[in-house]
Amino acid sequence: MNDVPATRSGRAPRGRAAAVGLSREQVISAAIAQIDAKGLSAFSLRELARGLGVSPAVIYWHVGGSKEDLFAAIAATITGQLAAAQDPLAPWTDRLRQVFLAYRASVHRHPNVSPLLGAQMKSNGVANLDWIEIVLAALSDGGFQGDALRNAFNALIGGLCGFVTVELAPAPSSEDGAWQDRVAARMAEVDPEAYPLTHAALPELANRIFVLRWQNGAQVPYDDSYTVLLDLLIDGLAARARSSATLETPEPLHG
């Protein structure tokens, strides 16, 4: 059921009248719902507009002049709630853990949106400033600035957001599960002489690691692996910050 009131003629209003009866939040929520149901590759602006009872121009009126603006707004909706996940009084390393754990949980609620967040430039832009600010604030409190700040930021976003994007990568949608069956069958036929280590580890690895799987992280989550990467990155940045602070501290004068 849509929230756009009908005119006296019984038809849904168009143009500015429809835009006034529809909120930006409703547009974004409906777009996310369509992606949840059909996947990002099947997203249709015309279908979104039809579902809301408006023209595509009304969608643009709310979110900007292009589909890319809508995608940026969707990304900002997913990441814009992350500030609330952190304790502002916690150490900077704990805040980063809180934020990136919340990021993964948020994307897992909408796994079909994950390629938009990590693998497409369409979601970039100033709509993500809240997300950028909280990560930069934590890193700045850790002593990072200049080139070191930029590199630390890219390591976190590339590593952790990239992990989630790969974890939730969609399987082929055109074969009705046949692709998954083929991959599973081929996994059972791995030659132990040609690949002895892989064959021996298959009970632990099959369908549970990247590149040797037929289901994505929405069906088989990679919780422990994500935690390992999170710890490695944050502990590594903390060690780097301590090392930098030690180098910058002048030695006491003796005499």
TrEMBL record:
GO molecular-function terms, A-Z? DNA-binding transcription factor activity; transcription cis-regulatory region binding
Record GO biological process? negative regulation of DNA-templated transcription
Q: Name one Pfam family in it.
A: TetR_C_1
InterPro entries named in the record? Homeodomain-like_sf, HTH-type_TetR-like_transc_reg, HTH_TetR, Repressor_TetR_C, Tet_transcr_reg_TetR-rel_C_sf
Q: Source organism's superkingdom?
A: Bacteria
- Transmembrane found in the keyword field: no
Q: Where is the HTH tetR-type domain?
A: 21-81
Stated name of the protein: Transcriptional regulator, TetR family
Portion annotated as DNA-binding:
44-63
- Keywords of the record: DNA-binding, Transcription, Transcription regulation
